[in-house]
Amino acid sequence: DSVILSIVDYYQKKDDKERLFESYYYLGGTYRDMNDISRALKAYHQGIEVGEDTEQTLLQGMTYGQMGILFAYQELYDESRNMIRKALCCYGGLGDSVRYANTLATLARTYDGKNEKDSAFYYYKESYRIARKYEKDKLADGIAGEMGCFYYDEGQIGLAKQTLLKVLPAERKAGNVLLCLGSIYKDEGQVDSARYYWGEVLKYGNLHKQCYANYYLTNLEKTQGNE
């Protein structure tokens, strides 16, 4: 972080608010990537203090959005929603439909995390509706995949399966979609299909999802007497 700190120091001395705001944003991202949430939040907050009176509305929205995500990581959902709503105001004012829809999905996750399922469902649907309205099909498919997993967690198996299969061609490499489909087929007793989709996660999913897939596959083989 020494390089970005030197840049922050440089623009502080230059009294260049716009560049200083940008520097704080990148400093926050550096700490976020280091998993140092407290210092990341401090940097983002310092950026907002500098940049809230500038015309950098997009950067304001991005900063609020990052703060909302980091608060959610800490399960500080009220603080998270406050930041997310500020981000939504910025993106709405700019007419940035992609970031607006993405941020609505982030808001939905905060309600899901606090077990407020009706609100989570509402914001997922709004996020999906906006993405489709503005023909952001890739984004809409990603949100639909997340909604399908949400339906599965809520026990709405038929709706989950219908939603996930609909987006599967576009979300072929989405680990969460593949994991969830495997679980649905396993619950239905369709072992070969479960094995197939969990196996696909090993090709396309990230390390975290691959660990889940390996665990599920191991347990599946045990139940089939294939230890």
Briefly summarize what is shown.
The chain contains 12 helices and no strands. By secondary structure, the protein is mostly helical.
Structure report:
82% of the residues lie in helices and 0% in strands. The model has no long low-confidence stretch (mean pLDDT 93). The protein has helices at residues 2-14, 17-33, 37-51, 57-73, 77-94, 97-113, 117-133, 137-153, 157-167, 175-187, 191-204, 207-223. The protein is elongated. The protein is mainly alpha-helical and 227 residues long. The protein has a domain at 136-227: Tetratricopeptide repeat domain (Serine Threonine Protein Phosphatase 5, Tetratricopeptide repeat), CATH 1.25.40.10. It comes from human gut metagenome. Keywords: Cytoplasm, Repeat, TPR repeat. This is TPR-repeat-containing protein.
Give the helix level as a range of percent. over 70%
CATH topology of one domain: Serine Threonine Protein Phosphatase 5, Tetratricopeptide repeat
Radius of gyration from CA coordinates: 21 Å
Question: Which homologous superfamily in CATH is the superfamily of one domain?
Answer: Tetratricopeptide repeat domain
Tell me the series of helices and strands, N- to C-terminal: HHHHHHHHHHHH
Bin the strand percentage: under 5%
Architecture of one domain, according to CATH?
A: Alpha Horseshoe
What is the total tally of β strands?
0
Query: How many separate helices?
Result: 12
**Mean model confidence by pLDDT:** 93
Q: Mind telling me the CATH class of one domain?
A: Mainly Alpha
Shape: elongated
What low-confidence regions span 5 or more consecutive residues with pLDDT below 50?
none
Largest pleated sheet = none
Class derived from helix and strand content: mainly alpha
